[in-house]
User: What shape does this take?
Amino acid sequence: MKISEKTIEEIADNLDCGMKCYLHKKTGDLKTIINEDNWVGADTEAWEEDIEELDANWPDYIEFEGMDSHESFKIMADFAENIDNAKLQDRLINALNKSKPFRNFKWEIDNSGDYRQEWFAFKKMRYIGYVKQQIELID
Assistant: This one.
């Protein structure tokens, strides 16, 4: 199945936001719904029509799964190991080795100035690669 780069990027962005993505095998129509595992207690009414469509036609769709916490942690560690600022690198590695590594890493990134955008670009690139790996497994 040939999936456009634009669709791959859209899937990656939505998965990164904690959503679930489903691609219709024949039409290429993309449905994005709330991932109730990530948004416990959230109102699903806005996605009810798509959820019903997916339930009724499950075999017609390919599901794209988001990263688990281990995979997300690996991306943070890879970013920390490869940045060119030794001080920030030490702070990020230290943050990842404390309890609550996700929160600590986010705080360091949010207070890192220009590296914040570099982090978002790095994470997006890795998420796009992650979606492409899932596509390869389907083909």
